[in-house]
Amino acid sequence: MHLRSVGELLKETFQEWNQDKASRLAAALAYYTIFSIAPLLMIATAVAGAVFGEEAARGEIVTQIQDLVGEAGATVVQTALANVNQTKTGIVGTSIGLATLLLGATGLFGEMQDALNTIWEVAPKSGQGIWVLIRRRLISFSMVLGIGVLLLLSLFLSTALAAFSSFMNSWIPGLATGLSILNFVVSFSLMTLLFAMIYVILPDVKIAWKDVLVGAATTAFLFTIGRTLLSMYLGSAAVSSTFGAASSLAVLLVWIYYSAQVFFLGAEFTQVYARKYGSEIVPTKNAVSVAANRLPSVDPQNSPRIRPRRRSGFLTKIKNWFGRR
């Protein structure tokens, strides 16, 4: 791919991102995430805790979030997990709580699916019945379990690398740096795999994995850079002084909002790349394409100009009247 092609690809990506109003989609996703983050992390903790223990899984989640958004944002998540875990009710209350937990966790991915359908220019067919809704919820729940499995894999690899580093550090002093690089590569690969799973499974389209992996790796790269910049910004005292007592929740909300924008920018890049250089994007049997219904962008320099009609004056009308005589 030439440099000019890369420039055209990035230009079209930002045009699509602006046309789809990705900032509004990111705001909606951030709102859903705030209410879904506790049940989502509870299910992911339960999956990973089945092997490593619930305390170890919860501690790893809080540590990862603290590395991302700082201590203030991690405090909100830690408090939410503790409150959900300490709630003890009867059978009826437990059943209602479990149903609420599942609906809350899958609601986030339902909103994400609608946003990705907007980016992929497809829409679900109308009048499909309750079974399609159940299917969409099952897909969302599979993504929740997938996050738990990835968390389990991340815990296993982090524990293995830490144990190997402590064992070999006395034998090879410079090995810690190499293992840190390896840990970054593993984390980046898991992040790419997570984005690829979301881009393939959630939207109502059929898209090749080879096209998605390019976009997922680009999204992971943008997410890594954005995470560093956001951590520097959120770590400053300006955010805490601006929001006061609500600074912990505000820090978490700001981080989710800007991370969602990066996520949707990567989705736009994936969609544009697959359409221009990859395989064809085809809607599933439960969806239809809405690409033809979108208004094309108008270039004011190349668009034809419509000249206003000149109104005939009084003398011109008299002249025309005598001319007809």
TrEMBL record:
Protein location: Cell membrane
Membrane topology listed for this record: Multi-pass membrane protein
Keywords: Cell membrane, Membrane, Transmembrane, Transmembrane helix
GO cellular-component term (any): plasma membrane
Transmembrane recorded as keyword: yes
Spans through the membrane: 29-52, 138-164, 176-200, 212-234, 246-267
Pfam families: Virul_fac_BrkB
Residues making up the signal peptide according to the UniProt record: none
Protein name per UniProt: Uncharacterized protein
Organism field: Chroococcidiopsis cubana SAG 39.79
